[in-house]
């Protein structure tokens, strides 16, 4: 009986969608339709495959990298230079969406298992992710504010207690400043929450830069409408199955070396500059 119950649990259908991030029925319908027509079914199949046939001893993040067939290119020595204990905030640009989150969790897990990830509440639909995720709701729903306040409190407590936290300070996926999508995508202005975390906990900061970006179609759609941008996220993940992801890891920065005393905006601007300086182009 226990086996049957367990199998029923693992085969229970989990649907991932960004449709909940918008409020009008038409926009939800549009997102779900585009997701179904692109890569959502493929990604859900890979997810169910791992639930049904997990590799013994393999973490969720390692399984995700394996099933997505990602060739993650990074400097192991640079990663190992980060502190293995004590307050740590890992910051990065956000060119892909889901893919950079998976990659960064895969990397940080190799360094220390006590990490948490600030990420979209969409990913909370997967029960396996819930122990790691601190959800952020970017929708306009009334419940979003309460969730985000609670998440900020938990994030601060986690880092203050000596944990590691992964943050994409932009909160949104990078977009080309060119409406035709011909120029390099960059993050929108970074929010100051990561700076507040660092200042209030005295955490060391590890800057990480992801090379590459989403497709030109995604860049163009992002300038047309937020709904189209959300609808294409899973398409972009599916398009990069079997691809390489190149990551540059900077030197860890102790809090004492940062722009202390100049306010959160000055601090986050410095952290952004340190991150983008790793681009090497």
UniProtKB/TrEMBL annotation:
Tell me the InterPro entries matching this sequence: ACT14924-like_Acyltransf_dom (IPR045746), Plipid/glycerol_acylTrfase (IPR002123)
**Where on the tree of life does the source sit, at the highest rank?**
Bacteria
- Domain Phospholipid/glycerol acyltransferase span(s) in chain numbering: 88-213
Per the UniProt entry, the signal peptide is: none
CDD domains on file: LPLAT_ACT14924-like
Q: What is this protein called?
A: Phospholipid/glycerol acyltransferase domain-containing protein
Originating organism: Burkholderia ubonensis
């Amino acid at each position: 009986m226990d086996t049957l119950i367990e199998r029923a649990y693992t085969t229970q259908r989990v649907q991932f969608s960004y449709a909940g991030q918008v409020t009008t029925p038409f926009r939800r319908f549009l997102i779900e339709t585009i997701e179904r027509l692109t890569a959502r079914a493929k990604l859900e199949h890979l997810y169910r495959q791992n639930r049904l046939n997990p590799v013994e001893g393999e973490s969720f993040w390692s399984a995700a990298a394996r099933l997505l067939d990602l060739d993650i290119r990074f400097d192991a020595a640079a990663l190992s230079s980060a502190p293995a204990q004590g307050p740590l905030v890992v910051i990065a640009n956000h060119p892909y969406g889901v893919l950079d989150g998976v990659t960064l969790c895969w990397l940080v897990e190799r360094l220390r298992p006590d990490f948490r990830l600030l990420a979209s509440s969409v990913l909370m639909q997967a029960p396996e992710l819930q122990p790691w995720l601190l959800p952020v709701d970017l929708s306009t729903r009334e419940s979003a504010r309460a969730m985000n306040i609670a998440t900020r409190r938990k994030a601060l407590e986690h880092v203050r207690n000596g944990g590691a936290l992964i943050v994409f300070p932009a909160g949104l996926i990078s977009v080309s400043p060119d409406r035709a999508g011909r120029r390099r995508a960059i993050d929108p202005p970074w929010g100051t929450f990561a700076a507040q975390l660092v200042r209030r906990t005295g955490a060391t900061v590890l800057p990480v830069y992801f090379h590459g970006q989403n497709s030109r179609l995604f860049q163009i759609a992002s300038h047309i409408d937020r709904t189209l941008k959300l609808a294409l996220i899973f398409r972009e993940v599916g398009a990069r199955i079997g691809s390489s992801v190149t990551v540059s890891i900077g030197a860890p920065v102790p809090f004492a070396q940062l722009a202390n005393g100049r306010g959160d905006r000055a601090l986050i601007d410095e952290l952004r500059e340190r991150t983008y300086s790793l681009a090497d182009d």
